[in-house]
Amino acid sequence: MKTNPGRFFEDYKLGEVISHAVPRTVSGGERALYHALYPARGALYSSDEFARSCGLPQAPLDDLAAFHLVFGKTVPDISLNAVANLGYAEGRWLAPVYPGDTLAARSTVIGLKQNSNGKSGVVWVKTEGVNQRGEVVLSYVRWVMVRKRDLDAEAPMTTIPDLAPAVPASDLVVPEGLDFTGYDFTLAGEPHRWGDYEPGERIDHVDGVTVEEAEHMLATRLWQNTAKVHFDATFRPDGQRLIYGGHVISMARALSFNGLANAQMVVALNGGAHANPCFSGTTVKAWSEVLDRAETAAPGVGALRLRLVATSGGEPFTLKGEGGKYLPHVLLDLDYWVLVPR
Amino acid sequence: MKTNPGRFFEDYKLGEVISHAVPRTVSGGERALYHALYPARGALYSSDEFARSCGLPQAPLDDLAAFHLVFGKTVPDISLNAVANLGYAEGRWLAPVYPGDTLAARSTVIGLKQNSNGKSGVVWVKTEGVNQRGEVVLSYVRWVMVRKRDLDAEAPMTTIPDLAPAVPASDLVVPEGLDFTGYDFTLAGEPHRWGDYEPGERIDHVDGVTVEEAEHMLATRLWQNTAKVHFDATFRPDGQRLIYGGHVISMARALSFNGLANAQMVVALNGGAHANPCFSGTTVKAWSEVLDRAETAAPGVGALRLRLVATSGGEPFTLKGEGGKYLPHVLLDLDYWVLVPR
Amino acid sequence: MKTNPGRFFEDYKLGEVISHAVPRTVSGGERALYHALYPARGALYSSDEFARSCGLPQAPLDDLAAFHLVFGKTVPDISLNAVANLGYAEGRWLAPVYPGDTLAARSTVIGLKQNSNGKSGVVWVKTEGVNQRGEVVLSYVRWVMVRKRDLDAEAPMTTIPDLAPAVPASDLVVPEGLDFTGYDFTLAGEPHRWGDYEPGERIDHVDGVTVEEAEHMLATRLWQNTAKVHFDATFRPDGQRLIYGGHVISMARALSFNGLANAQMVVALNGGAHANPCFSGTTVKAWSEVLDRAETAAPGVGALRLRLVATSGGEPFTLKGEGGKYLPHVLLDLDYWVLVPR
Fold first, then answer.
1. Which residue among C102, C224, C241 sits closest to B210, beta carbon to beta carbon?
2. From the list C29, C189, C196, which residue is nearest A22 (CB)?
3. Which residue of C has its CA nearest to A32?
4. In Å, how far is B287's CA from the nearest CA of chain A?
5. What is the CATH topology of the domain spanning C167-342?
6. Running DSSP on this structure, what letter comes out for residue C327?
7. Does the pLDDT of residue B268 top 90, yes or no?
8. What is the pLDDT of residues B215-238, one digit of tens each?
9. Which of A208, A291, C81, C237 is deepest in the core (most CB within 10 A)?
């Protein structure tokens, strides 16, 4: 067998470091495609001039594009036989990615727990994206439920990692040189500063995008994510292609520009749930809730902790129903930190 | 309210200058996408070598792509509450846009007229696209009908700008250095020179492209045009997404290569009407009529004034029916100047 | 008539050299789009760093993208009135194409044979892609059946070129500097070396991609291939758009990564048949057969001759039925040479 059957639960060993294949160099092409695929309008990512006025050398690749690129590399080793993508934690963006940079990815197995049914187990990995200078540009923990190949394989010792419920504000990394003291709010699109957002405040982002098969496949392929379920209409019994959860994340984040135009740089992913599957034809909408606020040491730079909820419709600000279960129209519930001018 | 409700008729003041948000840096990525989205084959825009042989430093971004980028920036301020896009005039391209350039946009309100029903009014703006060196790269007048928020708001003094029916040939700006004396007609694709086109001549461009939802959304997003009606299938009662008029312009212009391969650089937009809406599934075809011819001072460079008509089928060269109304199959009637080797 | 009616059979003269129009400069944009359109993961084409570790200056444009670009240029002169694309032979890639390169194309008529019905004939051309330094980057023979315009036109003398059944291994051109002695199999995605592939071995590539109208049109336009049948849903009586055969080639080649991750550089096209037409909605799958193996003089570099079969389903490894006819689920049968680390 020369093709990759993917790893099964019993193939993961605690502490093992997996080097993922197919490093990727990004260019203005990936940046242009990100703008074609999502209604992304963050000025810092759209304009080299704006980025320079904020102390960066040029406009970086969207932080979520960097995340998708790294995530995509992990799929053949981590989630080819995954039954479910269970969660994210401790995601941190540590350095911007610029055109010309090459990203590779590696994951360390940090937790294992066989399910009581003996047929599958949960694998926790800490994944790092690394650029051509060996700098870790982002890092996150993800856990997935993976099937066993051999039901008789011995269960590993249960190890559940101790994960922070949210990245502490003191651990947020502000890109070197970032300075929002000369920030141009007119060019950025909205006047709202860090101090204008109150914890508890909720924003309906109003706009919606109806998603198409061609679009989510272009996006998912762009990140070299090869999970069959996104591309092969014959794979699921219902003939539907499941949209990559990251496509919904990027769509919702881009939609959140309307009300959060100055929420420029994503610096941490505290957690996230893909509450319900998303399919072609869905009109994705989004709302946000301000969860927390923090200062940073960088000039003019504050941080907001936000909940970003993507929906397929339904009333804005509705999230969970009886028993704490996500309502059927909720696609995504994401918890992240973002840098905002003060 | 942190989201942008858009401006209503009573929010515009004569003489006001509106700085539009989200400057944009273009790269080879936008150029490649333009070629993927439209059957564009103009040699000057396809090949750096060909552009250099015509005296330019490299292949510019398609002139219409530059127009779309600037237009897109104006949408949140000008046409979010527009009922109709009424017309264009006095459009002039003043300098080519190259990969690496950053475009911003500003609009001056040059006309206002409340409608007799008191519910809406017409707003005329002169929009300028500006590059990172502060050079105006293109300029055009556009007028739209905009709803009033408050029907009791006082009507402004009526001011209707005096607009030229067409940009005079003497006002056309030929890009610095452009020289068609060594123009390679074989590489460009057709032998027809400026002098081969006679005013009154009409050309059926023969080819057709059936448009898809994913394509027009990719294009419209690429220009950061966020009008809901292009993206959200739940927005219109009929569940259809209206295709951005500029997508039809670019499609028709690209189709016109077949017969106008040497109509290289768009230098003026004299006027234009989106005669009927366009939806996914339409097969767009195009025909042209030569309206005028002019010489320029640049070596080997002539100008043609052309009518470009996009249709959803129907007989070529049919345009208007009884009462001067556009026929149902006419999508676009555009009047522009283009530079052609002599 | 200013539009291009295409050439008919009687318009081709033996020995004639046709210079094709519209040279094209490629950038990171084309590279990014190739990754969005196909599940391409060859490390050498994905990462500048990986390419440098193999002795190249940076990651080249995918070899098939270079082929499509050259092929696209020939369409208006060779296949606008073609009834059928009959075959390929003697295809050789002679130098990699890098971002910044400009490609032009020319074809020499090397064979002519009028059909016995007197209504059409077969034209053989040798096409060369040439970069901005005048270097031939690829060369192939293709033959098509073309209609006659004038059934009374005299038949040309029949000349059938003598074509090699396969490019001899000794004629394969290894890119200058290519060195696989330090090849990183982990980063490339699979451990299988040249010596691990045995002639006769067959590999089912397992994955499948369901193709969409928007995708194949984006791809085909990107290569400036303008054949109506790919874009205009009103062109065929059944309202279907025929997918460009090259789209199927690239899709199948990208799918073949799973099992052939180290089959990095395509250096020869021995032959190929588009066995059945492909339409939107088809789920493309692929399998390969190892046909031959050869050594090269370059350090660590071996060559494999492979059959690549694209299907719309059906049993893997089934190809032809009674009478040697391709089975209905076979889309493509391609025979090529590829460079692999030893």
1. C241
2. C189
3. C29
4. 29
5. Thiol Ester Dehydrase; Chain A (3.10.129)
6. P
7. yes
8. 999 999 999 998 999 999 999 999
9. A208
